[in-house]
Description:
Elements: H1 2-19, E1 21-22, E2 25-26, E3 30-32, H2 39-55, E4 59-65, H3 73-84, E5 94-100, E6 105-110, H4 120-136, H5 140-157
Helix pairs in contact: 2-5, 4-5
Amino acid sequence: MKKKILYLFLFVALFTFSCGQKKGQSIYFVNDWAHILTDEEISSLTDQIRELEQSIGSQIVILTIESLDGESIEDYSLRKASNWGIGRKDYDDGILITVALQDRQMRIEVSDGLGKIIKDEIAYRIIIEDMAPKFQTGEYYEGLFITVEKIKKLIKENKELVGQHL
């Protein structure tokens, strides 16, 4: 009996681990590669994002990096979003929030299935009105928290448009 439980546990652990990996790289809801967030802040943002995924299904991923190393933020974000496969395949409803700290650049990459809800102008306005002012004062968590809240609100208020392409 103990062996069966052990095998079941190992199977579940391996299955869970393999499901979290996308194309050879593990991703999480919050990937703080620039180390600008505390563990508590990462946990809070993760909970906030997880709630959207559980209630609607859409996915948000945050990525902070030190530098783009000369690459445009548009190209970098699009490449990461594509490689990671953010969002559900049938709905194409993923969002990648990218922050390049040294380059002082931010981007909200919206997949096609959320394009009717979060147009480029809306993403730009969120960056200009919410993220940038908080980031200028070093309040990275607050800027990201507000951004995720606004995105969640837009998706929840327009959930019937999730998965519809422009």
